[in-house]
Amino acid sequence: MEMESSTGSPVADFYRGRSVFITGSTGFMGKVLVEKLLRSCPDVSALYLLLRPRRGHDVRHRLEDMLNTPIFDEVRRSRPDALRKVVAIPGDMTFPDLGISASDRELLTDEVSVVFHSAATVKFDEALKLSIEMNMLGTQRMLQLAKQMRKLEAFVHVSTAYCNCDRSEVREVVYPTPTDPDKLVQCVEWMDADMADHMTSKILGNRPNTYTLTKAMAETSVAKEVGSLPVAIVRPSIVTAALREPLPGWVDNMNGPTGLFVGAGKGVLRTLYCHRDMVADLIPVDICINLLIAVAWKTATATRNQHGKSSGEEQQVVVYNCVSGAQNPIKWGSLQDMALIHLRRNPYSGVLWYPGGSFKESRAYHDLCSLAFHTIPAYIMDAAARLSGKKPIMVKIQQRLSKAVQCLQFFTTGEWQFSDDNVQALMGEMTPADRKVFDFDVREVDWDAYLNTYVLGIRKFVLKDDPSTFPEARAHLRKMYFVHRLSQFLTVTITWRLLLARSQVARRLWSVLVGILARAVGLVSGVARAVLPSIGSIAAPVSAH
């Protein structure tokens, strides 16, 4: 991968000499954003990353760990000095004033021109109080800091396309929430954690989880507090492995479809409650990051071109739905069919069963299959592990898998119509060079090829399977295929024998089937006896010639 030059790129030129402040930089999207800015905007002045100190590791060690991941290898090789531009700022989104020291705050307010705020708790089942603290109050604290930044030209807030999942059609606007964010904060503030958890279902209303609720509330806060700030909101849908950058297939977590692919590839996920004919709105992480970088450029240049806005006049928040369904949809059924092909062609090491199963559109049928193919086998395998003196783990794995799948069911059984007019308009304003370097045209994604890349990326970056293990993995998969077919044959045979032993109807049906088969065999034998002599008499003269 070659290092791109900013020459002829208005987007890259915009970042020349400017400092950027990023929250959520150690997350999946954050790492890709940092790497892309260093590689494709080589003249950026500095990248300030808000990092939370952890027990036993200060922020410098966390920064070193992040920069030592494989996605920074190209930057380290081609432009090693660029890594010195990355500066850790100790802080915490849940602390007053973000926990940033006075000296660091002064540095940020004096130097920063662009802010990317992507820090959030993305756990669907996060406790309400923590979700409010991170996603709502953290965003409000970021806005207060941004108002003090003297050079600020763009503040990009990363939301989610599903923050308005209570609507079937989602346009690129900030929708009002049923509850005022400030009142919700005041209401939850005096509750202890247990009371807040008890009240969560009532507060959620028709939303599936605290994540979508608090992200919607955060958008409302942004629109309310924007004032004269140059703010934009980017809403990604389901963020998945990299399409091309920084490495094809790169992913570092088990969230969303990644966890499903691991479960299916290992053979432990056999059923999922999902509507096959609905759109699975996946968005590769590099497409999302390219859009973020371009949105900051657009926000800054648009504000600059609006005479009088810089004097304190209130700004309008522009929203960008970063989605694939509007331009290049893929349905869950197609996703399943293609993914299973690639999981079998590129098997993971140590699969527990042959990859298979299917999506179920009936919840009752899914629950029955889950009991038969997930729960019961897990208990049987754990019992066998105990008898052999090994540690039983399958029940715990299945319980975690079941919890993760239940969190996703709202999104695998629903469909939303997302508009992306602002995204398409932005693409039209970019030069050909910028559209190549900061490519976010989802129409170019070949989903079948991408899913193959995705499966290989999981194998390499998540499961850490070395390429040298392919022959052994494929040989093991062939064995598991025969075990799978044998188990199916035995299951059918045993079930039928039990039916014959206990059901008069089954015995009668079996007698009828045997009789039909016997008559069919007799008929074929009679035809053969009649036809073979004729064939012999014809063949004899021919052979004589």
Automatic annotation (TrEMBL):
Domain Fatty acyl-CoA reductase C-terminal: 373-465
Superkingdom of this protein's organism: Eukaryota
Keywords: Lipid biosynthesis, Lipid metabolism, Membrane, NADP, Oxidoreductase, Transmembrane, Transmembrane helix
Any one biological process term the GO annotation gives: long-chain fatty-acyl-CoA metabolic process
Class of enzymatic activity (EC top level): oxidoreductase
Compartment(s): Membrane
GO cellular component: membrane; peroxisome
Enzyme Commission code: 1.2.1.84
Catalytic activity: a long-chain fatty acyl-CoA + 2 NADPH + 2 H(+) = a long-chain primary fatty alcohol + 2 NADP(+) + CoA
SUPFAM superfamilies xrefs: NAD(P)-binding Rossmann-fold domains
Gene3D superfamilies assigned: NAD(P)-binding Rossmann-like Domain
Annotated GO MF terms: alcohol-forming long-chain fatty acyl-CoA reductase activity; alcohol-forming very long-chain fatty acyl-CoA reductase activity
Membrane topology designation: Multi-pass membrane protein
Domain Thioester reductase (TE): 22-291
Keyword Transit peptide: no
Family according to the record: Belongs to the fatty acyl-CoA reductase family.
Described purpose of this protein according to its UniProt entry: Catalyzes the reduction of fatty acyl-CoA to fatty alcohols.
Protein name (record): Fatty acyl-CoA reductase
Organism name: Frankliniella occidentalis
